[in-house]
């Protein structure tokens, strides 16, 4: 498989076309209309069940609760007989390990901290809130979009950067030119080539009216090494 990074940079260097006469912000609006047609993300309250499969490791099963209006986040993750629970309720953070408040030794041995709790909150809210999260303050959407083919399939590519203090990575989002569904995204650490990862999206799970990618397969940009797959389902 050809490296997605190489394809991207060659394409951006050689194909500087306005796709279908859309601007970046216009493409984003069409993508949001596909994924969140009723504008429900800002008031999202829901539970996500995510299984993470990684090579040579047991699965990690997570139950994630996101309540944006009440600034509440909860994740319970179980792997290899260990269960961690993080709650961020506005500014208050709570940690449980195997159902109990962890000792300082358990925190250190298992990397448990409120910093990690907030990292998970931001991580899950960002990735499962895409592409709507690209409307957040501090996000800078390129006016020009580009056409690129990956594995023979055409995409409209949107580039996003962030203001100082918000983020340093450069992100690229690949949308289906017919439906405007998000099918790939990629980030470069500090914008440097051959860093970061790309993520292939497949399937769709509709949760509280929002279409979220069901399966996300992660790869390194530098060598296409497979990292793992997240599988989403809603709580029945």
From TrEMBL:
<feature type="signal peptide">
    <location>
        <begin position="1"/>
        <end position="19"/>
    </location>
</feature>
<keyword id="KW-0732">Signal</keyword>
<dbReference type="InterPro" id="IPR045444">
    <property type="entry name" value="DUF6503"/>
</dbReference>
<protein>
    <submittedName>
        <fullName>DUF6503 family protein</fullName>
    </submittedName>
</protein>
<dbReference type="Pfam" id="PF20113">
    <property type="entry name" value="DUF6503"/>
</dbReference>
């Amino acid at each position: 498989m050809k490296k997605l990074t190489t394809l991207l940079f060659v394409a951006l260097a050689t194909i500087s076309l306005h796709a279908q006469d859309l601007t970046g912000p216009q493409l984003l609006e069409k993508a949001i209309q596909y994924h969140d047609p009723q504008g429900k993300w800002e008031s999202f309250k829901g539970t996500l069940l995510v299984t993470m499969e990684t090579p040579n490791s047991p699965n990690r099963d997570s139950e994630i609760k996101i309540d944006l209006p009440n600034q509440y986040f909860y994740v319970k993750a179980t792997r290899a007989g260990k269960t961690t629970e993080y709650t961020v309720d506005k500014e208050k953070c709570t940690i449980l390990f195997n159902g109990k408040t962890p000792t300082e030794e358990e925190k250190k041995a298992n990397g448990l901290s409120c910093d990690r709790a907030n990292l998970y909150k931001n991580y899950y809210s960002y990735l499962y809130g895409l592409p709507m999260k690209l409307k957040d303050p501090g996000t800078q959407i390129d006016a020009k979009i580009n056409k690129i083919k990956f594995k023979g399939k055409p995409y409209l590519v949107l580039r996003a950067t962030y203001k100082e203090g918000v983020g340093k990575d450069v992100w690229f989002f690949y949308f289906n030119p017919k439906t405007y569904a998000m099918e790939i995204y990629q980030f470069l650490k500090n914008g440097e080539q051959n860093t970061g990862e790309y993520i292939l999206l497949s399937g769709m799970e509709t949760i509280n009216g929002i279409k979220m990618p069901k399966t996300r397969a992660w790869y390194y940009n530098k060598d296409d090494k497979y990292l793992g797959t997240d599988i989403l389902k809603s709580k029945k």
